[in-house]
Design a protein that fits this description.
585 residues; 2 domains; ABC transporter transmembrane region fold; alpha/beta; Rossmann fold
Length: 585
């Protein structure tokens, strides 16, 4: 979305609502963080008192009672610190994990709302990197950022006040170095953030390439292309190494700059403190306390500096999270969208369509009327827009011209969930989820009983081969159904639609992966399923659609012919040529 803030402050402001959901835990976490600072801040005062009393300065005398009192104070503070640290390490991390869970839920929900075109243009590996490793960095960020800055702020302010009380000139000289340290370290800090963002982007690319190769491993092996894949991987791997090398260079420079100023501050304390001690401008106990407070302050600075790497990773994760969240949802419900009882009359009125980021029209001025319960077939040469047309009806894309109606209602005025619940699709590219056969068929109706699933499998002609497996319906299908043949996967996908039992069927090459015998069997089942339902069948095998009520012939020039099988053959037109060519092949 345009106008969203992408600065560090802007990103953090957008992240705050996730943090404030757990404000009670956050408040207690920061309270405990404050308690942990007490020991570090009180210890120098205890040592100052012991030193001055031991040297008899200002008339003070060191006694056993004073020693035990000071030791008792420190012991109590230390016990409190241990309990506080336990809470921070436990509930603080739990809070971070809850925020990560919330963000992952939100980004996954948003991803499911995005249009198909987004996934056509975005690699899955990139998306996976953003919702796993990126958000894992956000967990640590959510927990440690408030803690570290709160502890650092408290220690810096209190240390500064006490140091001023102990010695004003030395403290002013010391703190004059801090703006210089912030200026120089922030320059490398920005470069480090950019490098981490580039690193995150490339690990997504690398993941996508690995996924592509592993999922296509059979193709790789069939072409003996292992060397080619290794070379491509090595190129991407080396690019990732060079990006990490650059990020580490900036990180090293960042640490070196802060370390330089760290050393300069100690040098000032040694020189200035020594001179002041010689001239009697500072007491020995005060100098001991002063050095300890400087050590505490510099340790805090070093801790924050060390944390900055984690901070930058977290900010990069938040940035990449909001990049997805800012992606516009192109297909959405209108506020007054309807949820009608769909009967199944489909009409395309002057429909035109162009894919996003392209100029050539795929469909132009297409007009089709499909009555309730009609069985209509759509045929034509490849590239004519048949599959595109079938993707427009369930609103995987929206038409760019004209409109599509169901029962006289523009589909853009129907709730997407209602629309798609009433459409059953069997596509040419069958996708099975990693799981069992039962789970994959039940996807068509999640609350279906096992008996209903088995009946759907019978209607789809899948029951026989499923029960032949040792585990039957509980057989694991593997990644994308890799353990099954193409025909078996197709029949399982058809069983899903039988189980869903919708009023509208979209069959895109539904029997393309089947042998002739299975095709004939499934064809009879599909004809039975189509009875009384509006069915749009896309087919290359013209023998499967001869009994359709109407056959539509779609080419790059649009809808050129329509009629029954016999009527179209009699015309000796495009359909006649397609049919005779199919018989010859």
């Amino acid at each position: 979305m345009e106008g969203q803030q992408t600065t560090k402050a802007g990103l953090f402001r957008r992240f705050i609502p996730y943090l404030t959901r757990y404000k009670k835990i956050l408040f207690l976490d920061l309270f405990c963080a404050g308690l942990t600072t007490a020991t570090d801040l009180v210890l120098p005062l205890i040592l100052r008192t012991l030193t001055n009393a031991g040297l008899g300065i200002d008339g003070a005398t060191l006694t056993t009672r004073i020693v035990f009192q000071l030791a008792g104070i420190y012991l109590v503070l230390r016990i409190i610190q241990l309990f506080a640290q336990y809470y921070m390490a436990n509930m603080g991390h739990v809070m971070g994990a809850r925020i990560e869970t919330d963000m992952r839920r939100d980004v996954f929900s948003h991803l499911t709302e995005l249009s198909v075109s987004y996934f056509n243009e975005t690699k899955v590996g990139q998306i996976m990197a953003r919702i796993t490793s990126d958000l894992n960095d956000v967990t640590e960020f959510a927990h440690h950022v408030p803690e570290e800055f709160f502890i650092g702020g408290v220690k810096a302010i209190i240390s500064f006040i006490i140091l001023l009380h102990l010695n004003v000139p030395l403290t002013l000289i010391l703190f004059a170095m801090i703006p210089l340290m912030i200026y120089f370290s922030s320059r490398y800090n920005r470069k480090m953030r950019d490098a981490f963002k580039e690193q995150r982007h490339h690990i997504g690319e690398l993941n996508a390439d690995i996924e592509d190769t592993l999922l296509g491993v059979r193709v790789v092996k069939s072409f003996a292309a292992e060397d080619h894949e290794r070379e491509q991987f090595e190129e991407g791997n080396l690019t990732f190494f060079r990006i990490k090398e650059k990020s580490y260079r900036y990180m090293a420079a960042f640490h070196t700059v802060t370390g330089l100023f760290d050393g300069l501050m100690y040098l000032i304390v040694i020189l200035g403190g020594g001179i002041f001690l010689l001239r009697g401008w500072i007491q020995p106990g005060d100098l001991v306390a002063y050095i300890l407070y400087v050590t505490t302050m510099l340790a805090t600075v070093r801790r924050i500096v060390t944390f900055m790497e984690q901070f930058q990773r977290g900010m990069t994760g938040i940035d990449r999270f909001f990049e997805i969240m800012d992606t516009d949802i192109e297909i959405f419900d209108e506020p007054d969208a309807l949820a009608p009882d769909i009967q199944g009359a489909i009409a395309l009125e002057n429909v035109g369509f162009t894919y996003p980021n392209e100029t050539a029209k795929v469909l132009d001025n297409v007009n089709i009327n499909i009555p309730i319960g009609a069985n209509v077939a759509l045929v034509g040469p490849s590239g004519g827009g048949k599959t595109t047309l079938s993707n427009l009806i369930p609103r995987f894309y929206d038409v760019t011209e004209g409109r599509i109606t169901i029962d006289g209602i523009d589909i853009r005025d129907i709730r997407i969930k209602t629309l798609r619940e009433n459409i059953g699709m069997v596509q040419q590219d069958v996708y099975l989820f990693s799981g069992t056969i039962l789970e994959n068929i039940r996807y068509g109706q999640p609350d279906a009983t096992r008996e209903q699933v088995e009946e759907a499998a019978r209607l789809a002609g899948a029951y026989g081969f499923i029960t032949a497996f040792p585990n039957g319906f509980d057989t694991y299908v593997g990644e994308r159904g890799i353990k099954l043949s193409g025909g078996q996967k197709q029949r399982i996908s058809i069983a899903r639609v039988f189980l869903k039992n919708p009023p509208i069927l979209l069959l895109d090459e539904a029997t393309s992966a089947l042998d002739n015998q299975s095709e004939r069997y499934i064809q009879r089942s599909l004809e039975e399923l189509s009875e009384g339902r509006t069915t749009l069948t896309i087919a290359h095998r013209l023998t499967t659609i001869q009994n359709a009520d109407t056959i539509l012939v779609l080419t790059e020039e649009g809808l050129v012919e329509q009629g029954t099988h016999e009527e179209l053959l009699a015309k000796h037109g495009v359909y006649y040529d397609l049919y005779t060519d199919s018989l010859a092949s």
